[in-house]
Amino acid sequence: MDRMLDLDTILTAITIWVGFGIVALAAPRSTRFVARVLFPISAVVSLVLAVAALHGLFMPPQSVVLVLGLPGLPFHLRMDSLSAYFLAVIGATSAGTSIFSAGYLRKGEGTPPGLQCLQYHLFLAGMALVVLADDAYAFMVAWEAMALASYFLVIANHRVAAIRRAGYLYLLLAHIGAIAILLCFGVLQANTGDFTFANLRVQSLSPFWASIAFGLAVIGFGAKAGIVPLHVWLPEAHPAAPSPVSALMSGVMLKTAVYALLRIAFDLLHVQIWWWGALLLGLGLLTALYGVVFTTVQTDMKRLLAFSSIENVGLIFVSTGLALTFRSYGMPTLAALALTATLFHVAAHAMFKSLLFLATGSVLHATGERNLGKLGGLIRTMPWVAWLTLVGALTASGLPPLAGFVSEWLLLQTFLFTTNLPTSFLNMLVPLVAAAVALVAALSGYAMVKFFGVIFLGQPREEKLLHAHDASTLERIGLAWLAAGCVALGLFPIQLIDAIDRVTRLLVQYGLGSTVHANGWLLLAPTSIQRASYSPLIFLLVVIASVACAAITVRILYHGRLRRAPPWDCGYPYQTARMQDTAEGFGQPIRQIFEPFFWMRRDLPSPFDARPRYRVVIEDRFWHWIYQPVQHAVERAARLAGRVQQGRISIYLLYSFVTLVVMLLLVSR
Amino acid sequence: MSPSGFLAQMLQFAVALAAAPLLTGWVNQCRAWMQNKQAPSLLQPYRLLYKLFHKEPVAAESASLLFRAAPYIVFGCMALACGIIPALSTDLPLAPAADAIALVGLFALARVFISLAAMDIGTAFGTLGARREMLIGFLAEPALLMALFSASLITNSTSLAAIVHKIGHSHFEIYPSMAFAGVAFTIVSLAENARVPVDNPATHLELTMVHEALILEYSARHLALIEWAASLKLFAYSCIGLALFFPWGVAEVNAPLATLYSVPALAAKLAIGGFLLALIETVSAKMRIFRVPEFLAAAFVLAVIGLLVHGLLGA
């Protein structure tokens, strides 16, 4: 095959995306045209992009220079295996979200569908160009296009003040991050004035400046990925955005930040300092723990998922930090293992988190509720959404034999393989981090049982839920596609690790591709079978066989009758849906155990209240520690600056005069 | 797959499925003796299963498919767990399919399904039980994982068969980290098997129960499968404990005769283990539910200390 074909296909796909956006403007209010015609074709384009990227992954790097933008500053685009891997993730996930959007988009308040279609496709194109960019200029343009398009998508329902506020917070943090990234590229080019990645790659920075660049990259991309304490926009923006957009932002956009960090830390920077990895490890761990603890106490289903994304990004940073540390100590095998865990989790998280966010969209449309306290029992009225969500929830809990477990398994294996790092501090740290990661994984199971159980199981907590309708066919296809991804990645991890092998070979000059194949295609064994092995397919088959044996034996030997009756519940005769555990109740043990994490305000009813009221407000401590002080400081500074404005023309003339005199003095020297 | 391996695998499945209720019966009998009660017959659990299988199941009107599928899934998970733990032989063809981490994942899978099934009907006790089960689970799971990691660090492997092979068939050594892991593992097994300081299998008092609250709505064959699965879980945990801390008498690869000898060895070890379990249950009192996280956190911390001790001593 022609060498350049993959990149050309991908660029064509991106152009078609942008074209769809523009075509949609022809009939911006026609939901039928935009949703039923454009989005399904766009999903096919996504699939083509994913296939081309997967093909390009196994090819040598391909590059192209586009004469776009400013004169003398063309866009350099290049697709190596790292870009191709992330492009495949973008394509595969957006195929699901696009086909879902086709069934999801309705007429409503806010941005008309045609404009949303343009924003959506610009968002996709921006993300694809971020991972393709080969110079800082193109990167920043794509990065900003992605941020702005997603900002407008977040505030699609801009009549609501809370949504505008959420959008503003998102935009603010995105730009704080963008400044850091810009400065980072400034440091990386080392006064050469040439911002192509090829030039950045050959610069040899001193450890000091390299550390500055790395720190700026962590701040910049951490703000996008949602690293504590820059995570505050996620739980605000995700509930505000339409569900397919939340799915894309959480499933894919966060990953572009991971991509960029990998690009800078492993590809552009050559200095290797061990504490970089330790820094990422620490930040990631804090983020993961913080995210998962907050996940368990949420009562809004999309906020819950947003915190869960923070947790997963934290885990991704933990394994990236491990990989960086191992690379700095010259341990390519371990670095490759940790990096494989990172990249596997990137794909797994893209699948299951998009699936879960889309499912909340279906629930939202069917019931009009985001509050967990007003949902329940939807498995009976929305079986399709419920069962597909179950796959996503089990994957998110990191349970075998699904995709989430494989990355968790690889990460835990990395810890176990770690022996004798040269720094004893790290040696002591590794078991503690492993313990914390195990705790995070177990807690995410708790959160997902809450998420699924409260929404889909039990009795409906509101009357209107009895008439909830299941998702439309197109929505089901989108959900099923992503659920199939969760299952496929879980059952065939070796095939994905084959692809990841190319990436780790590029970044740390070692890959697991040859060793995982040593034991056949069934058995995942990172080094040797004596050391560790896992075979999801056999695992699943044995469980299914046991289940089938049990079911058939019971049926043949005894009988398959079943009688229906009112629930038993220890014989208590009077039961209402209100007696079920609420979302607050389900999170209460965690709230009690992890109390120091929360900033909590509680109004408890007294026994003498005529209308007893129980209210608990849980807030993020970082609001009170960082954001509010900063906000107050800015307001105070603004007030001080405001004193200059007196509103009288004579004062302003005086200012001009003083300025003129000062200038003249400066010039005359 | 060697024929002897296949035989060992089948023997292990058969022994686990058949003997698991016996172990439960034995523990109940020991406990009754120690508490000066008339002991039920050793075969009582089998009679219970027989009775339950013959009854007509009653499910709540609102029960979904998840409710009916969960007992089978839990049973399947526990059957697989019993199939991969090297209780009789280390030559198990299925063992490479799931290592120690996957085994913990398998228990978690069963726990999630039974908790979801408990929430399905939407009764007050069901959801209460689900919440408590997950509360116990989220602390017990990492503690169990860390206890297994202690053994993995010593043997450089997460494969249970390799762990048993290395510890059991090399010359006797004392590992300090395993002492910590042992205490942690004991606590976790008590919690996971709904045993006395954490839960009381003999009580049906609504406000204190965990396991019983989960399965309140189940009857007949579904309940039988869950009870059987609970026996299998106790059996599996006992076998993990024996495999990690007393791995002697387990047959090796290509030793079909030794597999036969290993059956009485396992029976003897389980009898002693069951007696000790009954002893712990007799001498301790049930805790308040909010003391349980502290109890399990202690197990978690102990297991992590075990890992650190291993790192410090470099053993």
What does this structure look like?
The complex is a heterodimer of chains A (669) and B (315). With 669 residues, chain A is mainly α. Chain A contains 24 helices and five strands. In chain A, the strands form two sheets. In chain A, strands 1-2 form a two-stranded antiparallel ribbon. A two-stranded antiparallel sheet of chain A has the order 4-5. In chain A, helix 13 runs antiparallel to helix 15 and helix 16 runs parallel beside helix 18. The N and C termini of chain A lie far apart (69 Å). The model of chain A has no long low-confidence stretch (mean pLDDT 88). At the A-B interface, helix 16, helix 17, helix 21, strand 3 and helix 22 of A face strand 1, helix 3, helix 4, helix 5 and helix 11 of B. Strand 3 of chain A pairs parallel with strand 1 of chain B, so a sheet runs across the interface.
Question: Secondary-structure blueprint of this entry?
Answer:
The complex is a heterodimer of chains A (669) and B (315).
Chain A lengths: L4 H20 L6 H27 L4 E5 L8 E5 L1 H24 L8 H20 L3 H19 L6 H28 L8 H6 L4 H19 L7 H8 L2 H26 L5 H24 L3 H28 L3 H36 L10 H4 L1 H14 L6 H15 L6 H33 L16 H19 L1 H16 L4 H4 L19 H22 L5 E3 L17 H11 L4 E6 L11 E6 H22 L6 H20 L1
Antiparallel strand pairs in A: 1-2, 4-5
Helix pairs in contact in A: 1-2, 1-4, 2-3, 3-4, 3-10, 3-13, 3-18, 4-5, 4-10, 5-6, 5-10, 6-8, 6-9, 8-10, 9-10, 9-12, 10-12, 10-13, 11-12, 11-17, 12-13, 12-17, 13-15, 13-16, 13-18, 13-19, 15-17, 15-18, 16-17, 16-18
Chain B lengths: L2 H32 L9 H11 L3 E3 L4 H20 L15 H22 L2 H32 L4 H10 L6 H17 L18 H4 L5 H26 L10 H28 L8 H22 L2
Helix pairs in contact in B: 1-3, 1-9, 1-10, 2-9, 3-4, 3-9, 4-5, 5-6, 5-7, 5-11, 7-9, 7-11, 9-10
